[in-house]
Specification:
It is built from 9 helices and 9 strands. The chain starts with 16 loop residues before the first helix and ends in a 6-residue tail after the last strand. With 234 residues, it is an alpha/beta fold. Helix 1 crosses helix 5.
Length: 234
């Protein structure tokens, strides 16, 4: 069959004892197994609420911030790197958050095969790998095919929020999403967004800004067949 091009390289890296313990002890409560078939979100969270997904959550800081800020909503984090998953599990547990679940899987596969259509109120993707070299552009997560998968997963009016510190990638994302036709740029055509208060500013971002590397945010709303739905803001 056709081999899927991955947007990430799996480097296990150093895994700490605390991360390893979390993967054993906390995973059964907060983790969702990468099984086959559609995800039963309400069953996984033990309640039916507006659900937001963060793809590639790194060590989980933004995910924790968003979940703590919006206890009434459900937050599903998707990340392939096990050390980051271990870190996030510990943070979720330490903060006593019950509205977070974690999938250790390839987001493309999750969106394509496991998420029911129109099941998400929002998707957040912060600082995905920019793959700066031209010959690697095909590895970029944000591409026309992925935009279609995101659109299918979002409910009408659901919001896709992206952030990157690599300007050429920001411009690439903008052109991919504006070409898709199923999304409305909430900042106006061709324009970037202000960082919304639900996305915390990272140390990396503050350092970059001091060096004159501005971060670009993009905010797109999934249009429904009848026009654009009501925006959701947790």
């Amino acid at each position: 069959g056709h081999r899927q091009i991955r947007s990430f390289v799996l480097r296990e890296g150093r895994i700490t004892e605390a991360q390893r313990r979390a993967l054993t002890e906390l995973w059964p409560h907060f983790g969702i197994e990468a099984a086959e078939g559609p995800l039963a979100l309400a069953a996984s969270f033990g309640r039916s609420r507006a659900t937001y997904v963060e793809i590639g959550f790194g060590d989980g800081d933004a995910l924790i911030h968003m979940a703590a800020r919006a206890p009434e909503a459900n937050f599903l984090g998707i990340e392939v790197h096990r050390p980051g998953v271990g870190s996030a599990l510990n943070k979720v547990h330490d903060r006593g958050l019950e509205n977070v679940r974690i999938l250790c899987a390839d987001a493309v596969v999750v969106l394509r095969d496991r998420l029911p259509p129109a099941s998400l109120a929002g998707v957040r993707i912060y600082f995905p790998d920019p793959w700066p070299k031209k010959r690697h552009h095909k590895r970029r997560l944000i591409n026309p095919k992925f935009a279609r998968l995101l659109h299918r997963a979002l409910e009408p009016g659901g919001v896709l929020h992206l952030a990157t510190d690599w300007l050429p990638y920001a411009e690439w994302m903008l052109s991919v999403l504006e070409a898709d036709g199923g999304f409305l740029n909430l900042s106006g055509d061709g324009r970037f967004a202000q960082r919304p208060d639900w996305r915390p500013e990272t140390k990396f971002e503050r350092r970059g800004r001091r060096r004159g590397h501005p971060v670009r945010d993009l905010m797109f709303q999934a249009a429904s067949a009848t026009g654009v739905g009501e925006p959701r803001d947790p």
